[in-house]
Amino acid sequence: MDMRSRTSVAGYLSRTPQLKHLDDGLALFIGQLGQKQYRDEEDGSLTLLGTTYIKLVLLGEHAEQAFTDFVEGDDVVAVGGFKTRNYEHRGQKIEERQFQAAKLLFDTTRDRYQVERIPRARAGAMHKRPAMAAPVQFRAPQSAASPALGR
Known about the structure:
Elements: E1 7-13, E2 18-21, E3 27-40, E4 46-59, H1 61-69, E5 75-89, E6 92-106
Parallel strand pairs: 4-6
Antiparallel strand pairs: 1-3, 1-5, 2-3, 3-4, 5-6
């Protein structure tokens, strides 16, 4: 059995996200994903070349949840796929490339986030919390010439 895989794109929300509802009531999250582009220099530094942007959309319950969780400037990872959308606006045919995400996640590789979670109740389980184990002390290894070994 093959592993399921999807495309993921890391970036930041470069505009304030919007939540709209389609005619059938389906929620639609609309955002813009920005990704800074750099060039590696010979001296090891990076030169900012500019920023690439793409429209980001989510549908349904995920759209509503993303709208409550994310704001402009958040570093995110979007999981889904690239789509091309064709439509007509003011008499002109428009072809727009967008990223349709199935999931939108905080980019946890960024150190500025502190995520607080509400503990989830387990279905059908009313367990007591297990007793905490005794604390474990970790000590740095001592070298072979250590005076503590009596040599």
